[in-house]
Write a structure and sequence with these properties.
Blueprint: H1 2-24, E1 30-32, H2 36-60, H3 66-91, H4 94-118, H5 122-134, E2 139-142
Antiparallel strand pairs: 1-2
Helix pairs in contact: 1-4, 2-5, 3-4
Amino acid sequence: MLPLLSSYRLLTIALLSILLLVVGCSGPRPILYPNNHLKQVGQDQAEADMEECQQLAENYVPENDTATVAGNTAIGAGTGGAVGAVGGAIRGAAGSGAAFGAAVGATAGLIRGIFQASQPSPTYKAFVNRCLNERGYESIGWK
C-alpha cells in the first residue's frame, strides 16, 4: 500500500504543478503586422486598442463555460476508470485500478477543460481581428 500512496502523492504534485502552469499563463493576444498605421500610432496606442477590442469581444462573444470543464472532467473520469479497471484486472485488483484510473482521468480532464476554457474561441479571435482591422491594424495571428 505504501508504494501506491507514494504514487498518489507524486501524481498529485505533478498534476497540481501542471494546473498552476496552465492557469498562470497569460491569454493569447493578436500579433500585429507593422503597417503604416501601427508605425504612426505607436506600440502604446496599439496595446490600448487591443485591450479595448478584447473588452468589446468579451462583452459580445459567448465564453467557453463551465459545462466545457465539467464535460471534459466527466469524460476523463470515465475513460480513466475504464483503462484503470483493465490495468487493475491484469494485476488482480480491478477495483483499485478503476478508482486510481478514474482519479487520474478526472484530473486530466479537469486540466484539459480549464485550458480549453481559458483559450479564446475562434469567434472571439475573429471579433478582435475585425475590430483591430477597422482601426487600421493588420492582425497576422495570435501568440
